[in-house]
Structures are given as C-alpha cells and as structure tokens.
Amino acid sequence: MQFDVVSALLKVLLLWILTAPHEFAHAWAATRLGDDTPRREGRLTLNPLAHVDWIGTAILPFVTSLLGGGFLGWGRPVRTEISKLRGGLNGLALVSLAGPASNVVMAVILAVVAGATATAAPGVSRFTAYGVQLSLYLGLFNLIPVPPLDGSKLLLAARIPMQVYAEISRYGFVLLIVLISYTSLGRLLAAWSYDGAQMIFSVVR
C-alpha cells in the first residue's frame, strides 16, 4: 500500500478552509432563529480555530485519507438550545441543513477561483478545483444520520425518541469508521461529489 502524505495533508488543509464557513453557517442560522448560544460561545465567526475539533478536523481525516478508505472528518459542533430556537425541533433541522448548504456555496466560490487562476496560478487552480469536490463530499458526508454529524439532528426533527438518539450517539464514532472504511459509502460519496463538481464547473465556465 502506498501512502500519499502530501495528498492527505492537502485534504486536511482544505478541510480547515471549509470547516469555518460550515460551522459559521450553523451559528448564523441558530442566531437568526433566536438562539444566542453560538454567539455567546464565540462560534459566530469565520476564524478556523474557533471551529477545530482536533480529532475530527486533523487526526482522523489525515489517517483515513492516508489509508485510502474515504475521507472522514468534521468540525467542532456548534451548540444550540432547542428551547431558544423558533420552531423548536423544526428550527433545529434548519440549523443543521445550513452547514451542508454552505458547502454548496463554497464549492461554487472555489470553482470560480479555480477558473480565474487556471492560467496565472495553475497550482492554486488545481488546489481549489479539488476543493470543489471535497466541499461537496463534506456536505454529503455531514448528511449521514449518525451523531455527531448534521444529519443526525434531522432524526430529532423527525421526532425519533431521545433515548434511541442517545443510544446511537454512544456508538456514532465507531459507526462512522465502519461505514466509511468498510463499506462502499465513501466511494459513493466521492462519486456523487465528483459528478456534482462537474456540474458546477459546467455552469461556471
């Protein structure tokens, strides 16, 4: 097995770049819906250091990328108080979807940058072009309904019993490792994100 350390490091760097707007989107949506918790906890910012989870944003994505078993990573979850959100659990669903939605926005921005730098800075262009696909991959990945990912909050919005959610949360980390490393899910997410990236590039061009 060959280890591509440079590729793994570049993926982690891109993850840091993409994590800040993703988590900021959660914080912004929660704030707009009446919950001041993210603002009070310093999460209503684009500073990457405010959103880093050292396991999910550095160690794990580097290792899974290095081993070629997909790409597993996340930022530090933005805490919200359901009682403060307009719409309660329905508001929580909107806050959860704001993160993956930001990944689509970032994919479009990166595609524009890739096109604009193709001639003057081909290295930057290749880096940001890959970022388009990775951003979409992360958006799709975060929709997996397993804690601590965004998709798990949709289970709560669907009124799954809290006891069931808590039980899933106990094994969420292990479930994600198994799903990405030992099933075809990682490859499927990569294929879908590649197709989505091609669609964005076709529109931007």
Look at the helices and sheets and give the structural class. Answer: mainly alpha
Strand content: under 5%
Mean pLDDT: 91
Question: What's the end-to-end separation, in Å?
Answer: 37 Å
> How does the major sheet shape up?
none
Description:
With 205 residues, the protein is mainly α. It has one domain. Helices cover 69% and strands 0% of the residues. The protein has helices spanning 5-32, 37-40, 54-66, 89-116, 122-141, 150-157, 162-170, 172-182, 185-204. α4 packs across α9 (185-204). The chain is globular. The mean pLDDT is 91.
What's the quick description here?
The protein is mostly helical. The protein has one domain. It has helices at residues 5-32, 37-40, 54-66, 89-116, 122-141, 150-157, 162-170, 172-182, 185-204.
SSE layout:
Layout: H1 5-32, H2 37-40, H3 54-66, H4 89-116, H5 122-141, H6 150-157, H7 162-170, H8 172-182, H9 185-204
Write out key terms for the chains shown.
single chain; 205 residues; mainly alpha; 9 helices; 0% strand
